[in-house]
Amino acid sequence: MTRLVIVSNRVSPPTGDGQANQGGLAVALSSALRVTNGIWFGWSGNETEKFTGQVHFSRNEGVTTATIDLEPQDVEEYYNGFANRTLWPLFHDRTDLAEYERTFAGGYARVNQRFAETLVPLITPDDVLWIHDYHLIPLGSELRKQGVKNRTGFFLHTPWPVARLLTSLPSHQEFVESLFAYDLLGFQCQTWLDSFLYYVQDQFPHAEVKDNVIRIGDRTVQVIACPIGIDATEFIESATSAEADESRHAILRSLEGRTLIMGVDRLDYSKGLEQRFHGYSRLLQDHPEFQEKVTFLQIAPPSREEVGSYQDIRRELDALSGHINGEFATAHWVPLRYVNRGYDRIALSGMYRAARAALVTPLRDGMNLVAKEFVAAQDPEDPGVLILSRFAGAAEQLKDALLVNPFSPEELADALQQALRMPVEERKTRWRALMDSVETEDVHWWLRRFLDLLNDNGADRLVPPPPSNDVEPANNTDKSVQPAASS
Ligand code: ADQ
Questions:
Q1: How far apart are the CA of 23 and the centre of ligand 1, in A?
Q2: Catalytic-residue membership of 157
Q3: Is 365 labeled as catalytic in the residue annotation?
Q4: Of 43, 76, 247, 369, which one is least surrounded by beta carbons within 10 A?
Protein backbone atom coordinates (compact mmCIF):
# COMPACT_ATOMS: atom_id res chain seq x y z
CA MET A 1 0.00 0.00 0.00
CA THR A 2 1.30 3.46 -0.90
CA ARG A 3 2.17 5.35 2.26
CA LEU A 4 0.60 8.65 3.09
CA VAL A 5 2.83 11.19 4.79
CA ILE A 6 0.94 14.02 6.48
CA VAL A 7 2.80 17.12 7.58
CA SER A 8 1.35 19.83 9.79
CA ASN A 9 2.73 22.32 12.27
CA ARG A 10 1.66 20.22 15.26
CA VAL A 11 0.77 16.57 15.33
CA SER A 12 -2.01 15.36 17.56
CA PRO A 13 -2.53 11.62 17.34
CA PRO A 14 -5.69 10.04 18.74
CA THR A 15 -5.47 9.68 22.50
CA GLY A 16 -8.50 7.48 22.96
CA ASP A 17 -9.33 9.19 26.24
CA GLY A 18 -12.15 11.37 24.97
CA GLN A 19 -10.20 14.57 25.57
CA ALA A 20 -11.06 17.52 23.36
CA ASN A 21 -8.50 18.44 20.72
CA GLN A 22 -9.21 22.09 20.48
CA GLY A 23 -7.51 22.96 17.20
CA GLY A 24 -9.63 22.20 14.17
CA LEU A 25 -6.69 20.82 12.25
CA ALA A 26 -5.95 18.35 15.04
CA VAL A 27 -9.55 17.19 15.28
CA ALA A 28 -9.93 16.71 11.54
CA LEU A 29 -6.63 14.91 11.05
CA SER A 30 -7.23 12.57 13.96
CA SER A 31 -10.43 11.47 12.24
CA ALA A 32 -8.62 11.22 8.93
CA LEU A 33 -5.75 9.20 10.36
CA ARG A 34 -8.12 6.64 11.81
CA VAL A 35 -8.67 5.38 8.29
CA THR A 36 -5.23 6.19 6.91
CA ASN A 37 -2.13 4.11 7.07
CA GLY A 38 0.76 6.47 7.36
CA ILE A 39 3.05 8.79 9.21
CA TRP A 40 2.35 12.22 10.65
CA PHE A 41 5.26 14.64 10.81
CA GLY A 42 5.45 17.98 12.62
CA TRP A 43 6.75 20.08 15.48
CA SER A 44 6.66 18.39 18.89
CA GLY A 45 5.65 21.62 20.61
CA ASN A 46 8.92 21.42 22.57
CA GLU A 47 11.91 23.72 22.42
CA THR A 48 15.56 22.78 22.27
CA GLU A 49 18.48 25.13 22.80
CA LYS A 50 20.11 24.13 19.51
CA PHE A 51 18.27 22.57 16.57
CA THR A 52 19.64 19.07 15.94
CA GLY A 53 17.16 17.62 13.46
CA GLN A 54 16.61 14.64 15.75
CA VAL A 55 13.27 12.96 14.97
CA HIS A 56 11.17 11.46 17.79
CA PHE A 57 8.96 8.58 16.70
CA SER A 58 5.91 7.40 18.54
CA ARG A 59 2.90 5.23 17.80
CA ASN A 60 -0.68 5.68 19.05
CA GLU A 61 -3.67 3.65 17.95
CA GLY A 62 -2.07 2.71 14.65
CA VAL A 63 -0.75 6.16 13.80
CA THR A 64 2.99 6.79 13.71
CA THR A 65 4.11 10.30 14.50
CA ALA A 66 7.53 11.78 13.82
CA THR A 67 8.27 15.07 15.54
CA ILE A 68 11.12 17.53 15.87
CA ASP A 69 11.92 20.14 18.50
CA LEU A 70 12.50 23.77 17.52
CA GLU A 71 14.77 26.48 18.90
CA PRO A 72 13.15 29.27 20.98
CA GLN A 73 13.97 31.73 18.20
CA ASP A 74 12.20 29.48 15.68
CA VAL A 75 9.09 29.38 17.86
CA GLU A 76 9.10 33.12 18.32
CA GLU A 77 9.66 34.05 14.69
CA TYR A 78 7.97 31.22 12.80
CA TYR A 79 5.05 30.25 15.06
CA ASN A 80 4.21 33.22 17.29
CA GLY A 81 5.57 35.55 14.60
CA PHE A 82 4.89 34.87 10.93
CA ALA A 83 2.19 32.23 11.41
CA ASN A 84 0.15 33.85 14.18
CA ARG A 85 0.99 37.55 13.94
CA THR A 86 1.32 37.91 10.17
CA LEU A 87 -0.54 35.23 8.21
CA TRP A 88 -3.43 34.43 10.56
CA PRO A 89 -4.68 38.03 10.80
CA LEU A 90 -3.98 38.66 7.11
CA PHE A 91 -5.87 35.54 6.03
CA HIS A 92 -8.79 36.59 8.25
CA ASP A 93 -8.98 40.08 6.75
CA ARG A 94 -7.39 41.74 9.79
CA THR A 95 -4.61 43.67 8.10
CA ASP A 96 -4.90 46.12 11.02
CA LEU A 97 -3.49 43.37 13.27
CA ALA A 98 -0.99 41.89 10.81
CA GLU A 99 2.65 42.53 11.72
CA TYR A 100 5.18 42.57 8.92
CA GLU A 101 8.59 41.92 10.47
CA ARG A 102 11.52 40.69 8.40
CA THR A 103 12.69 38.52 11.28
CA PHE A 104 9.31 36.74 11.26
CA ALA A 105 9.56 36.05 7.53
CA GLY A 106 13.16 34.85 8.01
CA GLY A 107 12.17 32.49 10.83
CA TYR A 108 9.28 31.13 8.74
CA ALA A 109 11.59 30.37 5.82
CA ARG A 110 14.19 28.79 8.15
CA VAL A 111 11.71 26.49 9.88
CA ASN A 112 10.16 25.38 6.59
CA GLN A 113 13.66 24.53 5.40
CA ARG A 114 14.32 22.60 8.62
CA PHE A 115 11.09 20.68 8.19
CA ALA A 116 12.14 19.78 4.64
CA GLU A 117 15.67 18.70 5.61
CA THR A 118 14.45 16.41 8.39
CA LEU A 119 11.56 15.03 6.36
CA VAL A 120 13.50 14.11 3.21
CA PRO A 121 15.32 11.06 4.73
CA LEU A 122 11.95 9.67 5.89
CA ILE A 123 10.35 9.71 2.44
CA THR A 124 10.35 6.77 0.03
CA PRO A 125 9.72 7.26 -3.71
CA ASP A 126 6.18 5.81 -3.59
CA ASP A 127 4.97 8.00 -0.72
CA VAL A 128 2.24 10.55 -1.27
CA LEU A 129 2.75 13.75 0.73
CA TRP A 130 0.00 15.92 2.16
CA ILE A 131 1.02 19.23 3.74
CA HIS A 132 -1.42 21.19 5.89
CA ASP A 133 -2.09 24.82 6.54
CA TYR A 134 -0.63 28.28 6.49
CA HIS A 135 2.37 27.46 8.68
CA LEU A 136 3.88 25.35 5.90
CA ILE A 137 3.06 27.05 2.60
CA PRO A 138 6.68 27.01 1.29
CA LEU A 139 7.41 23.44 2.44
CA GLY A 140 6.51 21.93 -0.94
CA SER A 141 8.96 24.16 -2.74
CA GLU A 142 11.69 23.42 -0.13
CA LEU A 143 11.13 19.70 -0.68
CA ARG A 144 11.36 20.11 -4.47
CA LYS A 145 14.67 21.99 -4.03
CA GLN A 146 15.94 18.93 -2.22
CA GLY A 147 14.99 16.65 -5.08
CA VAL A 148 11.65 15.31 -3.84
CA LYS A 149 9.58 14.24 -6.85
CA ASN A 150 6.66 12.63 -5.00
CA ARG A 151 3.05 13.64 -5.56
CA THR A 152 2.52 16.42 -3.03
CA GLY A 153 -0.68 18.16 -2.02
CA PHE A 154 -1.46 21.12 0.19
CA PHE A 155 -4.67 21.93 2.05
CA LEU A 156 -5.40 25.36 3.49
CA HIS A 157 -7.65 25.28 6.55
CA THR A 158 -8.11 29.05 6.71
CA PRO A 159 -9.73 31.43 4.23
CA TRP A 160 -7.66 32.75 1.30
CA PRO A 161 -7.76 36.57 1.46
CA VAL A 162 -8.82 38.82 -1.37
CA ALA A 163 -5.98 39.98 -3.63
CA ARG A 164 -5.98 43.61 -2.55
CA LEU A 165 -5.33 42.55 1.06
CA LEU A 166 -2.81 39.86 0.20
CA THR A 167 -0.71 42.32 -1.75
CA SER A 168 -0.02 44.11 1.55
CA LEU A 169 2.27 41.18 2.45
CA PRO A 170 5.87 42.01 1.57
CA SER A 171 7.15 39.51 -1.04
CA HIS A 172 3.61 38.25 -1.62
CA GLN A 173 4.42 37.04 -5.14
CA GLU A 174 7.32 34.91 -4.03
CA PHE A 175 5.16 33.59 -1.20
CA VAL A 176 2.32 32.55 -3.51
CA GLU A 177 4.69 31.24 -6.18
CA SER A 178 5.94 28.65 -3.70
CA LEU A 179 2.49 27.06 -3.87
CA PHE A 180 3.10 26.11 -7.50
CA ALA A 181 5.47 23.40 -6.23
CA TYR A 182 2.44 21.33 -5.19
CA ASP A 183 0.50 19.02 -7.50
CA LEU A 184 -2.80 19.68 -5.78
CA LEU A 185 -4.06 22.65 -3.76
CA GLY A 186 -7.20 22.31 -1.66
CA PHE A 187 -9.34 25.14 -0.26
CA GLN A 188 -12.27 24.92 2.13
CA CYS A 189 -14.83 26.47 -0.21
CA GLN A 190 -15.37 28.01 -3.61
CA THR A 191 -15.08 31.58 -2.31
CA TRP A 192 -11.53 31.04 -1.03
CA LEU A 193 -10.58 29.18 -4.22
CA ASP A 194 -11.97 32.01 -6.35
CA SER A 195 -9.91 34.53 -4.36
CA PHE A 196 -6.80 32.45 -4.95
CA LEU A 197 -7.41 32.12 -8.69
CA TYR A 198 -8.13 35.82 -8.99
CA TYR A 199 -4.78 36.61 -7.36
CA VAL A 200 -2.94 34.14 -9.61
CA GLN A 201 -4.43 35.59 -12.78
CA ASP A 202 -3.85 39.12 -11.59
CA GLN A 203 -0.24 38.70 -10.46
CA PHE A 204 1.04 36.00 -12.81
CA PRO A 205 -0.11 37.00 -16.31
CA HIS A 206 1.79 34.06 -17.82
CA ALA A 207 -0.18 31.52 -15.81
CA GLU A 208 -2.80 29.62 -17.77
CA VAL A 209 -5.87 28.84 -15.66
CA LYS A 210 -8.46 26.47 -17.06
CA ASP A 211 -10.81 23.87 -15.58
CA ASN A 212 -9.27 24.12 -12.12
CA VAL A 213 -5.78 23.55 -13.45
CA ILE A 214 -2.99 26.13 -13.36
CA ARG A 215 -0.15 25.81 -15.84
CA ILE A 216 2.84 27.99 -15.13
CA GLY A 217 6.40 27.40 -16.37
CA ASP A 218 6.98 23.67 -16.16
CA ARG A 219 4.43 23.21 -13.36
CA THR A 220 0.88 21.92 -13.55
CA VAL A 221 -1.17 22.45 -10.39
CA GLN A 222 -4.69 21.23 -9.84
CA VAL A 223 -6.91 23.25 -7.48
CA ILE A 224 -10.12 22.24 -5.71
CA ALA A 225 -12.67 23.45 -3.21
CA CYS A 226 -12.86 20.53 -0.80
CA PRO A 227 -14.81 21.39 2.36
CA ILE A 228 -13.66 19.58 5.48
CA GLY A 229 -16.30 17.70 7.45
CA ILE A 230 -16.66 16.03 10.82
CA ASP A 231 -16.86 12.36 11.69
CA ALA A 232 -20.64 12.59 11.79
CA THR A 233 -21.27 8.98 12.79
CA GLU A 234 -18.88 9.25 15.70
CA PHE A 235 -20.33 12.58 16.78
CA ILE A 236 -23.89 11.24 16.76
CA GLU A 237 -22.69 8.35 18.90
CA SER A 238 -21.07 10.81 21.32
CA ALA A 239 -24.14 12.99 21.52
CA THR A 240 -26.44 10.06 22.26
CA SER A 241 -24.14 8.38 24.81
CA ALA A 242 -25.00 8.11 28.49
CA GLU A 243 -22.17 10.49 29.36
CA ALA A 244 -23.45 13.16 26.96
CA ASP A 245 -26.94 12.69 28.33
CA GLU A 246 -25.62 13.37 31.80
CA SER A 247 -23.98 16.56 30.54
CA ARG A 248 -27.26 17.55 28.84
CA HIS A 249 -29.26 16.97 32.00
CA ALA A 250 -26.74 18.82 34.15
CA ILE A 251 -26.94 21.93 32.00
CA LEU A 252 -30.75 21.73 31.73
CA ARG A 253 -31.05 21.46 35.52
CA SER A 254 -28.89 24.53 35.96
CA LEU A 255 -31.12 26.52 33.58
CA GLU A 256 -34.20 26.07 35.76
CA GLY A 257 -36.54 25.88 32.76
CA ARG A 258 -34.89 28.64 30.72
CA THR A 259 -34.02 28.20 27.05
CA LEU A 260 -30.35 27.69 26.17
CA ILE A 261 -28.47 29.57 23.48
CA MET A 262 -24.92 28.32 22.93
CA GLY A 263 -21.63 29.39 21.45
CA VAL A 264 -18.39 27.35 21.41
CA ASP A 265 -15.17 28.76 19.99
CA ARG A 266 -11.47 29.12 20.57
CA LEU A 267 -10.98 32.57 22.01
CA ASP A 268 -9.90 34.25 18.78
CA TYR A 269 -10.72 37.66 17.29
CA SER A 270 -11.81 35.97 14.05
CA LYS A 271 -14.70 34.23 15.82
CA GLY A 272 -16.76 37.41 16.24
CA LEU A 273 -17.40 37.00 19.98
CA GLU A 274 -17.56 40.69 20.71
CA GLN A 275 -20.11 41.28 17.95
CA ARG A 276 -22.04 38.21 19.11
CA PHE A 277 -22.25 39.55 22.67
CA HIS A 278 -23.57 42.83 21.27
CA GLY A 279 -26.18 40.92 19.25
CA TYR A 280 -27.37 39.08 22.35
CA SER A 281 -27.48 42.29 24.33
CA ARG A 282 -29.56 43.81 21.54
CA LEU A 283 -32.04 40.92 21.79
CA LEU A 284 -32.48 41.48 25.52
CA GLN A 285 -32.88 45.21 25.02
CA ASP A 286 -35.27 45.19 22.04
CA HIS A 287 -37.24 42.13 23.17
CA PRO A 288 -37.48 42.35 26.95
CA GLU A 289 -39.93 39.46 26.88
CA PHE A 290 -36.88 37.17 26.58
CA GLN A 291 -35.30 38.52 29.74
CA GLU A 292 -35.13 35.82 32.42
CA LYS A 293 -36.39 33.33 29.79
CA VAL A 294 -33.10 32.62 28.03
CA THR A 295 -29.49 31.98 29.00
CA PHE A 296 -26.57 32.37 26.64
CA LEU A 297 -23.66 30.02 27.38
CA GLN A 298 -20.47 30.99 25.57
CA ILE A 299 -17.57 28.56 25.97
CA ALA A 300 -14.28 30.09 24.82
CA PRO A 301 -10.99 28.68 26.10
CA PRO A 302 -8.06 31.06 25.52
CA SER A 303 -5.65 30.31 22.69
CA ARG A 304 -2.33 31.82 21.51
CA GLU A 305 -1.92 33.69 24.77
CA GLU A 306 1.63 34.82 23.90
CA VAL A 307 0.23 37.08 21.16
CA GLY A 308 -0.78 40.61 22.21
CA SER A 309 -3.95 40.81 20.09
CA TYR A 310 -5.27 37.70 21.88
CA GLN A 311 -4.62 39.31 25.26
CA ASP A 312 -6.51 42.39 24.03
CA ILE A 313 -9.58 40.47 22.85
CA ARG A 314 -9.68 38.56 26.12
CA ARG A 315 -9.68 41.81 28.11
CA GLU A 316 -12.39 43.28 25.90
CA LEU A 317 -14.62 40.23 26.29
CA ASP A 318 -14.14 40.17 30.06
CA ALA A 319 -15.30 43.77 30.22
CA LEU A 320 -18.18 43.31 27.79
CA SER A 321 -19.56 40.18 29.47
CA GLY A 322 -19.41 41.95 32.83
CA HIS A 323 -21.17 44.93 31.33
CA ILE A 324 -24.00 42.85 29.82
CA ASN A 325 -24.54 40.90 33.03
CA GLY A 326 -24.40 44.12 35.05
CA GLU A 327 -27.06 45.66 32.84
CA PHE A 328 -29.54 42.79 32.59
CA ALA A 329 -28.93 40.33 35.46
CA THR A 330 -31.41 39.97 38.28
CA ALA A 331 -30.98 38.35 41.68
CA HIS A 332 -32.11 35.05 40.12
CA TRP A 333 -30.78 35.20 36.58
CA VAL A 334 -27.40 35.64 34.89
CA PRO A 335 -28.09 36.27 31.18
CA LEU A 336 -24.60 35.45 29.89
CA ARG A 337 -22.42 32.61 31.12
CA TYR A 338 -19.00 33.27 29.69
CA VAL A 339 -16.70 30.34 30.36
CA ASN A 340 -12.96 30.43 29.57
CA ARG A 341 -12.29 26.72 29.69
CA GLY A 342 -12.55 23.85 27.24
CA TYR A 343 -14.84 20.83 27.58
CA ASP A 344 -14.29 17.42 26.07
CA ARG A 345 -16.26 16.49 22.98
CA ILE A 346 -18.75 14.26 24.76
CA ALA A 347 -19.68 16.87 27.35
CA LEU A 348 -19.94 19.47 24.57
CA SER A 349 -22.15 17.26 22.43
CA GLY A 350 -24.57 16.86 25.36
CA MET A 351 -24.71 20.63 25.83
CA TYR A 352 -25.28 21.18 22.09
CA ARG A 353 -28.23 18.80 22.30
CA ALA A 354 -29.68 20.81 25.17
CA ALA A 355 -29.51 24.11 23.23
CA ARG A 356 -32.42 25.66 21.33
CA ALA A 357 -30.04 27.76 19.25
CA ALA A 358 -26.32 27.96 18.48
CA LEU A 359 -24.58 31.19 17.58
CA VAL A 360 -21.74 30.33 15.19
CA THR A 361 -20.93 33.77 13.93
CA PRO A 362 -17.26 34.18 12.97
CA LEU A 363 -16.27 37.32 11.08
CA ARG A 364 -14.16 35.09 8.82
CA ASP A 365 -13.58 31.35 9.12
CA GLY A 366 -12.05 28.80 6.77
CA MET A 367 -14.82 26.30 7.48
CA ASN A 368 -16.00 26.10 11.14
CA LEU A 369 -16.56 22.62 12.46
CA VAL A 370 -18.54 23.69 15.51
CA ALA A 371 -21.48 24.45 13.18
CA LYS A 372 -21.40 20.89 11.85
CA GLU A 373 -20.96 19.36 15.30
CA PHE A 374 -23.95 21.29 16.61
CA VAL A 375 -26.11 19.92 13.78
CA ALA A 376 -24.91 16.34 14.32
CA ALA A 377 -25.67 16.52 18.05
CA GLN A 378 -29.34 17.45 17.72
CA ASP A 379 -32.36 15.38 18.69
CA PRO A 380 -34.20 14.75 15.36
CA GLU A 381 -37.56 15.19 17.11
CA ASP A 382 -36.69 18.49 18.76
CA PRO A 383 -33.68 19.99 16.98
CA GLY A 384 -32.06 23.31 17.84
CA VAL A 385 -31.55 26.07 15.28
CA LEU A 386 -28.16 26.91 13.80
CA ILE A 387 -27.44 30.63 13.39
CA LEU A 388 -24.45 30.79 11.08
CA SER A 389 -22.26 33.57 9.76
CA ARG A 390 -22.33 34.14 6.01
CA PHE A 391 -18.55 34.55 6.26
CA ALA A 392 -17.78 31.03 7.45
CA GLY A 393 -16.79 28.54 4.75
CA ALA A 394 -19.51 26.27 6.18
CA ALA A 395 -22.21 28.69 4.95
CA GLU A 396 -21.70 27.41 1.37
CA GLN A 397 -22.94 23.97 2.47
CA LEU A 398 -25.25 24.75 5.40
CA LYS A 399 -27.72 26.92 3.54
CA ASP A 400 -30.69 25.91 5.71
CA ALA A 401 -29.18 27.53 8.78
CA LEU A 402 -30.28 31.07 9.63
CA LEU A 403 -27.51 32.85 7.76
CA VAL A 404 -26.49 36.20 9.26
CA ASN A 405 -24.11 39.08 8.88
CA PRO A 406 -22.11 38.75 12.11
CA PHE A 407 -21.18 42.44 12.08
CA SER A 408 -24.79 43.52 12.54
CA PRO A 409 -26.15 43.31 16.12
CA GLU A 410 -29.66 43.86 14.74
CA GLU A 411 -29.40 40.94 12.35
CA LEU A 412 -28.07 38.74 15.14
CA ALA A 413 -30.91 39.77 17.45
CA ASP A 414 -33.47 39.14 14.67
CA ALA A 415 -32.06 35.70 13.99
CA LEU A 416 -32.09 34.86 17.68
CA GLN A 417 -35.68 35.93 17.94
CA GLN A 418 -36.61 33.87 14.88
CA ALA A 419 -34.79 30.82 16.29
CA LEU A 420 -36.41 31.13 19.71
CA ARG A 421 -39.89 31.39 18.20
CA MET A 422 -39.42 28.85 15.41
CA PRO A 423 -42.11 26.11 15.36
CA VAL A 424 -40.85 22.58 15.77
CA GLU A 425 -41.90 21.58 12.22
CA GLU A 426 -39.72 24.26 10.65
CA ARG A 427 -36.87 23.37 12.98
CA LYS A 428 -37.12 19.74 11.85
CA THR A 429 -37.24 20.60 8.15
CA ARG A 430 -34.21 22.87 8.36
CA TRP A 431 -32.30 20.40 10.51
CA ARG A 432 -32.95 17.49 8.14
CA ALA A 433 -31.46 19.42 5.23
CA LEU A 434 -28.45 20.48 7.32
CA MET A 435 -27.93 16.96 8.61
CA ASP A 436 -27.99 15.52 5.08
CA SER A 437 -25.07 17.74 4.21
CA VAL A 438 -23.15 17.04 7.45
CA GLU A 439 -23.58 13.29 7.03
CA THR A 440 -22.88 13.11 3.30
CA GLU A 441 -19.94 15.46 3.17
CA ASP A 442 -18.21 14.18 6.30
CA VAL A 443 -14.52 13.91 7.08
CA HIS A 444 -14.19 10.56 5.26
CA TRP A 445 -15.72 12.08 2.14
CA TRP A 446 -13.27 15.01 2.42
CA LEU A 447 -10.27 12.74 2.85
CA ARG A 448 -11.24 10.45 0.00
CA ARG A 449 -12.00 13.33 -2.35
CA PHE A 450 -8.64 15.01 -1.74
CA LEU A 451 -6.66 11.78 -1.90
CA ASP A 452 -8.45 10.58 -5.03
CA LEU A 453 -7.03 13.56 -6.85
CA LEU A 454 -3.67 13.53 -5.10
CA ASN A 455 -2.91 9.91 -5.74
CA ASP A 456 -2.64 9.05 -9.43
CA ASN A 457 -4.22 5.68 -8.69
CA GLY A 458 -7.14 7.05 -6.70
CA ALA A 459 -7.68 7.08 -2.95
CA ASP A 460 -8.19 3.32 -2.71
CA ARG A 461 -4.50 2.63 -2.32
CA LEU A 462 -4.28 5.17 0.51
CA VAL A 463 -7.56 4.80 2.35
CA PRO A 464 -9.00 1.48 3.48
CA PRO A 465 -12.66 1.16 2.40
CA PRO A 466 -14.64 3.52 4.66
CA PRO A 467 -16.71 4.10 6.59
CA SER A 468 -18.17 1.10 8.46
CA ASN A 469 -14.88 -0.57 9.30
CA ASP A 470 -13.01 2.62 10.09
CA VAL A 471 -13.05 2.38 13.87
CA GLU A 472 -10.27 -0.12 14.37
CA PRO A 473 -7.12 1.67 13.27
CA ALA A 474 -5.07 -0.72 15.36
CA ASN A 475 -5.27 -3.11 12.37
CA ASN A 476 -2.59 -1.07 10.68
CA THR A 477 0.60 -3.05 10.75
CA ASP A 478 3.63 -1.46 12.33
CA LYS A 479 5.69 -2.44 9.32
CA SER A 480 3.72 -0.40 6.82
CA VAL A 481 4.23 2.85 8.68
CA GLN A 482 7.90 2.55 9.53
CA PRO A 483 9.93 5.49 8.30
CA ALA A 484 12.26 4.78 5.43
CA ALA A 485 15.18 5.81 7.59
CA SER A 486 15.52 7.56 10.87
CA SER A 487 17.81 10.40 11.67
P1 ADQ B 1 -10.35 26.40 14.37
O2 ADQ B 1 -10.28 27.85 14.13
O3 ADQ B 1 -9.68 25.92 15.58
O4 ADQ B 1 -9.78 25.60 13.11
P5 ADQ B 1 -13.23 25.24 14.37
O6 ADQ B 1 -13.44 24.59 13.06
O7 ADQ B 1 -14.31 26.16 14.79
O8 ADQ B 1 -11.92 26.07 14.44
O9 ADQ B 1 -13.12 24.18 15.56
C10 ADQ B 1 -12.36 23.10 15.45
C11 ADQ B 1 -12.58 22.11 16.57
O12 ADQ B 1 -12.22 22.63 17.83
C13 ADQ B 1 -14.01 21.64 16.66
O14 ADQ B 1 -14.01 20.24 16.61
C15 ADQ B 1 -14.50 22.14 17.98
O16 ADQ B 1 -15.36 21.26 18.66
C17 ADQ B 1 -13.24 22.34 18.78
N18 ADQ B 1 -13.46 23.47 19.66
C19 ADQ B 1 -13.63 24.74 19.29
N20 ADQ B 1 -13.88 25.51 20.37
C21 ADQ B 1 -13.89 24.69 21.42
C22 ADQ B 1 -14.12 24.88 22.81
N23 ADQ B 1 -14.43 26.07 23.28
N24 ADQ B 1 -14.04 23.80 23.64
C25 ADQ B 1 -13.77 22.59 23.14
N26 ADQ B 1 -13.57 22.34 21.83
C27 ADQ B 1 -13.62 23.37 20.98
C28 ADQ B 1 -9.28 25.79 11.77
C29 ADQ B 1 -10.02 26.81 10.92
C30 ADQ B 1 -11.48 26.42 10.76
C31 ADQ B 1 -11.60 25.00 10.19
C32 ADQ B 1 -10.74 24.05 10.98
C33 ADQ B 1 -10.68 22.68 10.33
O34 ADQ B 1 -9.91 28.10 11.49
O35 ADQ B 1 -12.13 27.32 9.90
O36 ADQ B 1 -12.93 24.57 10.27
O37 ADQ B 1 -9.40 24.52 11.10
O38 ADQ B 1 -10.24 22.77 9.02
A1: 5
A2: yes
A3: yes
A4: 76
Cis-peptide, bond into residue 467, ω within 30° of zero: yes
Angle between helices 232-239 and 369-376 (to 10 degrees): 50
For 199-214, the pLDDT digits (tens) are 999 999 999 999 999 9
Q: pLDDT tens-digit profile of 109-123?
A: 999 999 999 999 999
Atom from ligand 1 closest to the CA of residue 342: 24
Query: CA of 195: how far to CAs of 191, 199, 244, 406, in Å?
Result: 6, 6, 40, 21
Assigned domain for 482 exists: no
**Residue 464 resides in a domain:** no
Q: Are residues 218 and 320 in the same domain?
A: no
Q: What residue ranges of the chain have pLDDT lower than 50?
A: 18-24, 464, 466-487
Mean of all residue pLDDT scores within the chain: 90
Q: Are residues 332 and 315 in the same domain?
A: yes
Shared domain check, 206 and 114: yes
Number of domains comprising the chain:
2
Question: Looking at the structure, do residues 155 and 241 belong to the same domain, yes or no?
Answer: no
User: 3-class DSSP state for residue 462?
Assistant: coil
Instruction: Identify the domain containing residue 284 by its residue range.
Output: 233-439
pTM of full prediction above 0.90 = yes
Ligand 1 pocket check: which of 337, 339, 370 to mutate, most ligand atoms within 8 Å of Cβ?
A: 370
Evaluate: CB of 106 within 6 angstroms of ligand 1: no
In a domain, 430, yes or no: yes
Q: Whose CA is nearest to atom 20 of ligand 1?
A: 265
Is the CB of residue 134 less than 8 Å from the CB of residue 178?
no
Same domain, 252 and 240: yes
From 22, 94, 443, mutation site for ligand 1 pocket: most ligand atoms within 8 A of C-beta: 22
Per annotation, catalytic residue among 365, 400, 414, 442: 365
Our answer on whether the CB atom of 482 is closer than 6 Å to any ligand 1 atom is no
